[in-house]
Design brief:
alpha/beta
């Protein structure tokens, strides 16, 4: 585990040192991570908890957990009947705010995620690529206009350059 932590902690410590040298105390630093990997030799939830132990001692302002599915259950190294975000939020015990994301494409998905209480913030990646105006649609209650997949016939809607198509 010490070897697995060596590189990410060297990077994080370098970033924190650069912040200190800058004199910008208002500059926010977070850490984005994926909690586990499906491969037998990949990161397990137990190893993620060890990472979190180290991160909780760093002067970070947030953690950002990258997930394909917000509601995905743990695979190995923790209670597999519970969602990863739930386990990690509980493990953090309020020490750092947690951003969670993962396949939250509809207003119903967002509502369900918010009701879990597993994160302090929700993040949106693919959702915003599909709906560049996602926040406006949510704010204005225009839920029926939210798309869940890119429609190539509406290329002008997304603002992607030709190279993206």
């Amino acid at each position: 585990m010490e070897n697995r932590l060596r590189f990410p902690m060297a990077v994080l410590d370098a970033v924190l040192a650069a912040k200190a040298r800058s004199g910008r105390e208002d500059f926010i630093i977070g850490y984005r991570f994926s909690p586990e990997e499906p491969q037998d030799d990949g990161i397990t939830m137990r190893e993620t908890f060890t990472l979190l132990d180290v991160l909780k001692e760093k002067p970070l302002q947030y953690l950002h957990m990258s997930e394909r599915d917000f509601f995905q259950h743990a695979r190995r190294g923790a209670d597999t009947s519970r969602a990863r975000l739930d386990l990690i939020h509980e493990y953090l015990d309020g020490k750092l705010p947690l951003i969670g994301l993962g396949s939250l494409f509809t207003a119903e998905d967002v509502s369900k995620a918010l009701q879990t209480g597993w994160t302090e913030f929700l993040g949106f990646g693919r959702t915003v690529l599909v709906n560049p105006n996602f926040a406006t649609l949510m704010k204005e209650g225009r839920y029926d206009e939210i798309q869940t997949a890119i429609d190539p016939t509406r290329a002008d809607h997304y603002g992607f350059g030709d190279f993206m198509w």
